[in-house]
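ASSEMBLY PREDICTION REQUEST
Request ID: AP-0331
Submitted by: J.K., bench scientist
Number of chains: two
Total residues: 855
Priority: normal
Notes: Please return the full assembly, not individual chains.
Input sequences:
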Amino acid sequence: MLSYFFRRFGQAIFVILAMIVLVFFGVNVVGDPIWMLISPEMDQQAIAATAAALGLDKPIGEQFFFFIKGLFQGDLGRSFVHGEPAILLILGRMGATMELAIAALLMAIIIGLPLGMYAGLHPDRRASRTIMAGSILGFSLPTFWVGLMLIMIFSVMIGWLPASGRGPTDTVLGIQTSLLSLEGWRHIALPALNLALLKISLMIRLARSGTREAMSMDYVKFARAKGLKESVIIRVHILKNILIPIVTVLGLEFGSLVAFSVVTETIFSWPGMGKLLLEAIQRLDRPVIVAYVMVVVVLFVFINLIIDILYSVLDPRVRLTEAKA
Amino acid sequence: MMSRLLSFFRASLVSCMALGSVMVHAQQELRIGVSAEPSSIDPHYHNLGPNNSLARHVFEPLVGQDPSQQLIPGLAQSWRTLNETTWEFKLRNNARFANGRPVTVEDVIASFRRAPNVPRSPASFAQFLTGMTFEQGADNKTILVKTSSPAPLVPTNLSVIAIMSKDCAEKLSTEDFNAARCDGGSGPYRFTEFKPGDRTVLERNPNYDGARPSWDKVTVRYLTSGPARVAALLAGDVDVIDNIPPADIAKLRGNANFTIAETLSNRVIYLHMDQFRENSPFITAKGGSPIKNPLRELRVRQALSMAINRQAIVDRIMDKAAVPAEQVLAKNFFGTSQKLQPSKFDLKAAQGLLADAGYKNGFKLKIHGPAGRYTNDTQIIEAIAQMFTRLGLEVEIETMPPANFFSRASTGANGLPEFSMILAGWGAGTGETSGSLRSLMGTVDKAKGSGAANRGRFSNAKLDSTLDIALATVDDKKRASLLAEASEIAFNDLGIIPVHYQTNVWASRKGLAVEARADEYTLAHKIKRQ
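STATUS: Completed
Returned structure:
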C-alpha cells in the first residue's frame, strides 16, 4: 500500500516537471510576453525597464533557471499581469470552478444514470430510442453554441434564470460557496447544465451498454430464476456491477470538467480558473499558465488515486498493491 | 356595490403595482457589464484602459478629460504657466478624501512619487512624469511643476496620474489596494470589493465635494464574451454594457427597451509598411523572384491607399461602427489637420500610379495581422487583400493570435520588425496627436524615445523636426497648428495608411443616459437617469 503511494507520488513529480519544461518553453515560442503587457504608448526605454523589472530581458534558459530556483524555495512566480503570486490567483478562483464541476457531475449522474439504465433495460421502447437520439445531440452540439442558446431561451426569452455570473457566496468551513442559497443555484443552473451536457450523454451511453451487458450475464438470469424482485435485481445485481467502469470514467471526466471548463466559464462569465487560464494564455502570462498546469496535474493524480481506492471498495478482487497505473 | 368594490380593488392593485415599479426604478444601484477586466484596482499599477476607467471613479487626476478628451479641471480647478518651464496648479478648495481629510499639496506630491515606482508594474506611469520636479507653491493648495525644458504636455501627462492620500501613497502596496484598503481617493466613489474575474463593487463617497452621482452603489461586472454581454443586458442582469459587437448594434437600436450611446473613438486602424529594407521578406515579383521593396516608393503607397474602399469596409464589415480615417485621430481632437481627407477610392487612378512607379504588372505581397485584437480585424484584412487584388497585386494574408503577432511584428527578425505589411490599431490615450505621430512615424531613436511603435521604420526628417518644435511649444494655439502641419507631412508621405476610426458604442436599458467617451471609459457617475 505505502509503496504504491510512493510510486504514484514519483510519477506525479515526473509528470509535473515534464509539463513545466513544455509549457515554459512553449510559451516562449509563441511570443515575447512584454508586447502583451506594455501600454502601446510607452517609449523604448520604458519598455526595456519593464522587461528588466520582470526578468524578461534575460535569455530564456536563464529565466528557466531562476524559475526552478524559485520553485525549490516554494515560489511559483508572480503573474506578469496581476503582480500577485500565480498560485494564489489560481487557488482564489478554484472554488468557483470546483463548484461548477461538482454541480455538473451531479447533474450527469442524476440525469444520465437513470436514463441510461432505462434505455438498457428496455432497448426496444420508443422512449429509449428517443433517449439515445438525444444523447447523440448532447455529444455533437458545440458547447459554446448550446451555452448561448440556453442563455437566449432561459434568460432572455423566458427570463427564469440569470444570464451570467456567480451568485452571492457564503463561507462554510473556510470555503466560499454559492450553493447554499437559492440565488446561487439559480446562477449555477445554466452553466452547470451546459458543462454537464456532454457528460450526461456519456453517462447514458455507459449506463446503457453496461446494463445490456449485465442483463445477459448468468448471475442476472439466475437471480431472475430465483424469483427475485426486478427492483432488487436492478439495484443489487446490475447497478453495482455497471458502477465500476462508470466510476473510472466519471473520475477522469471530473478532472476534465475542472481543467477544461474554459468555454463555459467564458460564455457564462463564471469567475473560475478556466477564465483565468484563457486570459493568461491570451496575454502570455507565463507564471499563471505554468502554475495552472501544475495544479491540474496534481489534481488529476489525486483524482486517479481516489478512483483506485473507490475501485477496490466497489470490486473486492482489486487490490491497490497490484494496481499499476 | 360589488362592482364598485371590485374596481376599487383593481385601482389599488394597479397603484400598488405602479408603486412597486417606482420602487424598482428608484433603486440606487447601477450594474454595469464591461468587456475588459482590470489587472488591479491600484491606480498606479498598470497603465491600461480598464484599470484607468475604474480608477477614475475613485481617484481623480489633477486634470480631467472630457468625453472627447479635451482637458478640463480635475482635482485642480485651474492651471497656468508661470514661465516656460514652470506650471502652477491650484487644487479645488473643498476637495476631500473618502476618509474626510482635505486634499493638500503633500498628497499630490506623494502620489507623483509613488506612480513611477510601483513594483512589478507591467506598464508604468513613469514616462508621464519624467523630467518633472514638484514643490509647494504659495499655499498648501498650490503646486508648482518644474521641468528642465519647455514642456507643453505637462497638463496632458498629469491627466493620467491618479492622486491619492499621502497615507495610501506611502504605506500601501498593490495587494492592499486590491483588498480595498485605501480610503484616500477624492472621487465620487470608493471601492468596497474587488473580485478578480467577477466584479468590482463601489459605493458613493459621502465626502465628495462635486455633483452627487445618481447611484449609491455601483457593481461593475466583467463579461468578456460579446454575445454573453449583450444577453446579460437583454435578460436584465445588468443596466449598461460597453463595447457592443457591431453585428448586435442594429438589433439593439431597433429595440425600444434599450438605448444606444456612441461616439468616435481615439483608435485608428491602419496599415504599417516596411520602409527600411531594400528587399522586403514578404514581397516578391508575381513569379516569386526577388524585387526591390516597392513600399518605399510614395506612388505605390498612394496607389494602395486609393485602392482601399474605406466606405465599403465601414458599411459592410463594421456595420457602420466606424468612420473612414485620414490621419491618426479624427478632426475634433487636438493637433489634427483640418485639410487632410481620407484617400478617395479610385481604382483607375491607383492603377495609373502603380504603373508610373514601374509596377504595371503588380507584385506579390503578404499582409499579416492579429486575429481578435481589434473589432473584425481578420475580415478587414481579407477585404483589403481583395481590394489590392483588384488593383493588380497578388495578395496573401496571414492572421495569428495577438500574443504571437505583436512579438513578431515588433522584433521577429533578429530584433527588427518581421513583416512587410501589417494591419494594426492605435489608441491615443492622451487624446492629442503628438504622442501618436512620434511613436508610429517618428524616426526610431531610443535615446529620444521616438518611433517606439514604428513597425515599418518610416522616417521623415521634416516630420521629426516639426514634432520636436511642437513638443517645445507651450502656447496651445501654436502647438496645435504645428501638430496639424506634422500630421500633413506624415500623411501626405503616407508613413502609415489609415483605414478607419472605430466608434465606441454603449447600450443601456431605457431611461438611462450614458456618456459616450472617446477613451472607452465607462464612468458610472456620468450615467444619469433620464
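REVIEWER COMMENTS: Chain B touches chain A through 59 residues (CB under 8 Å).
SIGN-OFF: pending second reviewer
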